[in-house]
Amino acid sequence: MQRHLDGQAVLAQPPTWGYRARKFARRWRLPLAAAAMVLASLLAGLGAALWQANEARAQAARAEQSKRFIASILQQAQPRQGSGGAVLAADLLVVAGARIERELTSDPQGAAELGVIIGEGLSMLGEPERGEDVLRAAVARADAAWGARHIITLRGRALLAESLAVLQPDEAARVADALVPDALAGLPETAAVATMALRQQSFQRAKRDEAAASYAPLRQAIEIAERHLGPNHADTAATMGLLSNTYGRLRRVQDATRLGAGGADSGDGRPGRAAAAPDADGG
Q1: Which DSSP category does 167 fall into?
Q2: With contact defined as beta carbons under 8 Å apart, do 130 and 165 qualify?
Q3: What pLDDT does residue 122 have?
Q4: Is the dihedral of CA 239, 240, 241, 243 positive or negative?
């Protein structure tokens, strides 16, 4: 009886392993519980360390693959034989975009990042519409890998809206309208993307001569850029210039309508370049 009260094995029955284990656990339950918690913490830490190590190796492999891919693009920058002159940077980027679909499909994250980089390069070269195909693929991959509000996905969506702005304005407007709330939700980290998305939204509304509706996104974009990027940032200055252009162009349209002279030419300039270089007659 005393052995039972002390939590020890009772000699009146066979001392099986399971019976002794239950008695031992009951007698030392607090130390065993503490040991179990320590063991669980160690296992969780080991699991996290192994996951981080695997992720680091995967990132290193993606970085190495991207480095080789970019190096191979630069190696293509050789003058054409015969007529035609040197290979243009935009041509190289377009070829690189096509190669992603052939060579990087096994690495969707790397393909998404490179696709967005190519789209950015074409935008900076003044040929954003040539990035449409690669950006569509990049956005789909980024969305699947990280979600719609990841910074890479947001950048790709903003660039896609720009690539569609002239030739497919209705779809560009839908992309921009869907992008704006997602970009705003990530502030301040997404300030540059939010500013670009709002510029695209304003641009499409201005193309439809919707004066009041086009001013509001630009004012919001300026406020975001000044607050999070700084008053001297290039995006802030570009957005201010675009607002000035938009005021001037839409005011001309309204004046022409009042005079019965018909609407003014809406033009097909792009938000970023229009902001940087106002048209001569638009002030």
Answers
A1: T
A2: no
A3: 94
A4: positive
CB 275 within 8 A of CB 282: no
Structure-block tokens of residue 9: 């094995």
16: its two tokens: 């099986």
Q: Which of 252, 273, 277, 279 is nearest to 263 (CA)?
A: 252
Q: Which of 80-89, 136-145, 255-264 has the lowest mean pLDDT?
A: 255-264
Q: How far apart are CA 174 and CA 204, in angstroms?
A: 10
Q: CB-based burial of residue 49 (10 Å sphere; 0-12 exposed, 13-18 middle, 19+ buried)?
A: exposed
Is residue 264 within 8 A of residue 249, CB to CB? The reply is yes
| Contact (Cβ atoms closer than 8 angstroms) between residue 119 and residue 156 | yes
87 phi-psi bin (left φ>0, alpha ψ -120 to 50, beta other): beta
Number of helices followed by number of strands (H, E) in the chain: 12, 0
* Type of residue at 43: L
Extract the tokens encoding 49: 């360390």
Residue type, 205: R
Two tokens at 131? 């990035």
**How far, in Å, CA of 101 to CA of 96, rounded?**
9
> 195: which residues sit within 8 A by CB, 6+ positions away?
221, 224, 225, 229, 235, 236, 239
Q: Taking the model in full, what pTM does it have?
A: 0.68
Residue 53: Cβ within 10 Å count? 10
Alpha helix (H) ranges present in 11-107? Answer: 17-27, 29-75, 89-103
* More confident of the two residues 76 and 121: 121
Give pLDDT tens digits for 2-41: 555 555 555 555 667 676 677 667 777 787 788 788 878 8
